[in-house]
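Data availability (excerpt). The following record was deposited with the supplementary files.
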Amino acid sequence: MGSRSRESIYGASVRAAAETAAEARKKADRLACEAWTMRMLGFQGPAQPSPTLGDALNAGYGYLEVRCLGCDTNQTVALDIVRRPKSTPVHELERYMRCKDCSQVRGYAYKRSALVALRPTKISASDPPSTWWPGER
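Predicted structure:
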């Protein structure tokens, strides 16, 4: 009998298959996040169903853009520091969001917000907040 191990016989094909599967998962997660973002920007919802935190992070979307309904400002939340399981859908984070500025003015936690979109980067001067598409002024 030969002395070749299974690793030398099947190792390369197994690694190639695993790499292909990982790329396919990443592409599927990216497409799901893009579809959810387009639905949120185009129709302003519904937020359900939404991708999970793990899917968004795997696809490269590290931030969630949230709009405060009190002061009408947009802010980003880093998804990698959210203290929830990675299997949590993104839409479930909406009830935990609160605006720091509105909470200080009112004296209590102001939790009226709307999810806007998933983003790969934070809001900055070179990457401004997302805009609602149909008829936004």
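Summary of structural features: The two ends are 77 Å apart (CA to CA).
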